[in-house]
């Protein structure tokens, strides 16, 4: 996990840089926010491709699944910056992967839908 490589700064610049900035740097904050949204969009597109190809169960909410995993990915950066050990971060990754079956299971709507977040 590159977030914890001792030879590099901890975390990820896309997540950590310019989340709070002066008005003069608003363009940087906007650019990085757009990049984070693009990452989530790419996750969603890949899940949708998996649904189309039969690798992901039909009926899976691609927006919610993408948002969940993007949120985990982005927070791993924050946790790494705070010095959380690699093993603990990898345990979070394992938990996120373990949630896959629940998030792709058919059944009643148990989760907020991507279009209803807020």
Describe the structure.
By secondary structure, the chain is an all-alpha fold. It is built from 5 helices and no strands. It has helices at 13-16, 26-53, 62-81, 86-98, 100-104. Helix 3 packs antiparallel against helix 4 (86-98). The protein is flat, with a radius of gyration of 16 Å. Residues 113-118 have low confidence and may be disordered.
How many beta-strand runs?
A: 0
Helix content: 55-70%
Largest sheet: none
Head-to-tail CA distance between termini: 31 Å
Provide the fold topology.
Layout: H1 13-16, H2 26-53, H3 62-81, H4 86-98, H5 100-104
Briefly, what is this?
The protein is 59% helix and 0% strand. The protein has helices spanning 13-16, 26-53, 62-81, 86-98, 100-104.
Essential attributes:
5 helices; about 120 residues; disordered C terminus; mainly alpha
